[in-house]
Design a protein that fits this description.
There is one protein chain. By secondary structure, this protein is α/β, with parallel strands linked by helices. It is built from 17 helices and eleven strands. The chain has an eleven-stranded mixed β-sheet with strand order 1-3-2-4-6-5-10-11-9-7-8, with helices on both faces. The protein is globular. Bound molecules: glutamine (GLN).
């Protein structure tokens, strides 16, 4: 009997459709898998077995149909799901059950996708290792002593340990792509505005973008089509047709595609093994008929400092809503203390150290006297980075770089050094500042651990990512995680 947890999403949907398996059986197989392994991986913060089985039954009853009907999915705990605990990895939201579905959640439900539960993440998506979760870290299925990436480490670890064939992530500075890179999975940050942010708990509103995570390129594309498209409830949502991502994933053809290798995203700081796998993957693409040239994007070297001013500035404003009055935690409300004291105590206890660091950084950068020097300057850098991308599009169709400078590092290795943690995002952040789509695809192993190839494309050309990813996947089949700990 086939192990239902090893099927791709496309295979699962086909099997459910032709009734060779029921959606309930598929959901149960994944719930059993979660029960068997998640005590070691810790990908999930909450598992909704009843909800998943009820949704699967609706698919079996023919009430819900579509290309992904009956396929299980792991939802990052930063997207609201009506009645289901949603924490964003923070103690300050412990116990909060949102009264509404995010647009992404609603579209998944309407498509018959079976949401298994909510996945672990760095608190408010601030981090690159999932170690900043208030609920303990997630472990990388390739090596349980290593990080699964962040902030969406729960989503990527769920995929790599076969607890779900699909997951949703969010990417503000790399939180879909870097976890995909270090877990050997596929992660796509759509064009900013391509997927609704309604119900996505805001970190940095001008950068946040939800997107698909999967084990195969086609599965990611199928999920992309389900969640993307205009939404009147998000004022930054783009009112344009969804790019033909599924068709592009199926084409697997890069003949004639002009690929630019970003000169600035290499060299110092990039592990030799990462650079080697990246270079080999680029040669594979050249062998498939793409033309490859080097492209200089001179302002990309300033992306990291600009991001770490813009994102904390927006976060300091967005996180002001967690005030003990409207959501979750409330500390010290004994009838004696003033409202201000209760707010201060709640925020002091409810937020972890990284979130506090960002709030302080952002508040400082926005304060009068420093605004022009920090926030204003960072916005100018953002414009220059956008111009680098636009200049590149005169010469090439897509840009490529390693997704992250290293493979998965050991848990704890960068916790004492915030800047070392921030440097994980050095190659992923430019695309967020620009707003264009970007993805990470598996590109082989270094010392037994996955390496990711990043592809960046012009805004609304998300299809180009899938064209490259599909071709690469066929020519360079992704390694399968050994999961040695399961049998040890
Ligand atoms: N690692 C980056 C940060 O800490 C990006 C996070 C994200 O994309 N949500 O801000």
């Amino acid at each position: 009997m086939t192990d239902l947890t090893r099927l791709t999403a496309a295979e699962t949907a086909a099997a459910v459709k032709d009734r060779s398996v029921s959606a309930v059986e598929v959901a149960q197989a994944h719930l059993d898998r979660i029960a068997a392994v998640d005590d070691r991986v810790h990908a999930f913060l909450h598992v909704d077995a009843d909800g998943a089985l009820a949704q699967a039954k609706r698919v079996d009853d023919g009430e819900l149909t579509g290309p992904l009907a009956g396929v299980p999915l792991a939802l990052k705990d930063i997207l609201t799901q009506e009645g289901i605990p949603t924490t964003a990895g923070s103690k300050i939201l412990e116990g909060w059950r949102p009264p509404y579905d995010a647009t992404v959640t609603a579209r998944l439900k309407a498509a018959g996708v079976v949401i298994l539960g909510k996945t672990n993440m760095d608190e408010f998506a601030m981090g690159s290792s999932t170690e900043h979760s208030a609920y303990g870290p997630t472990h990388n299925p390739w090596d349980l002593d290593r990080i699964p990436g962040g902030s969406g480490g729960g989503s990527s670890a769920a995929l790599a340990s076969y607890q779900a064939p699909l997951a949703i992530g969010t990417d503000t500075g790399g939180s879909i792509r870097q976890p995909a890179s270090v877990t050997g999975t596929v992660g796509v940050k759509p064009t900013y505005g391509g997927v609704s942010r309604y119900g996505l708990i805001a970190f940095s509103s001008s950068l946040d973008q939800a997107g698909p995570c999967a084990r195969t390129v086609l599965d990611a594309a199928l999920l992309h089509e389900v969640i993307a498209g205009h939404d009147a409830r998000d004022s930054t949502s783009i009112d344009a047709p969804v790019p033909p991502v599924v068709e592009a994933a199926l084409s697997r053809d890069v003949r004639g595609l002009r690929i630019g290798v970003v000169k600035e995203l290499s060299g110092e700081g990039y592990e030799p093994g990462v650079q080697a796998r990246f270079d080999e993957a680029v040669e594979v693409l050249r062998g498939l008929g793409a033309t490859v040239t080097e492209v200089s994007c001179p302002h990309f070297v300033y992306a990291l400092p600009a991001y770490y001013l813009i994102a904390p500035s927006e976060a300091s404003s967005n996180l002001a809503r967690f005030d003990s009055v409207r959501y979750g935690l409330r500390v010290g409300d004994d009838g004696e203390r003033s409202l201000e004291e209760v707010m201060a105590l709640t925020r002091a206890q409810g937020f972890g150290p990284e979130v506090k660091r960002r709030i302080i950084l952002g508040t400082y950068a926005l304060s009068s006297g420093y605004y022009d020097a920090y926030y204003g300057q960072a916005q100018k850098v953002r414009t220059l980075i956008t111009r680098d991308f636009q200049a590149a599009w005169e010469k090439v169709d897509v840009l490529v770089a390693p997704t992250a400078p290293t493979v998965a590092f050991p848990l704890g290795a960068k916790l004492a050094d915030p800047l070392a943690m921030y440097r994980q995002d050095v190659a992923s952040i430019p695309a967020n500042l620009y707003g264009g789509p970007a993805a990470s695809f598996p590109a082989g192993l270094s010392e037994g651990l996955p390496v990711g190839l990043q592809v960046m494309a012009p805004t609304l050309r998300d299809d180009l990512l899938y064209r490259v990813g599909g071709a690469l996947e066929l020519a360079l089949p992704p390694a399968v995680p050994p999961l040695a700990w399961e049998t040890a």
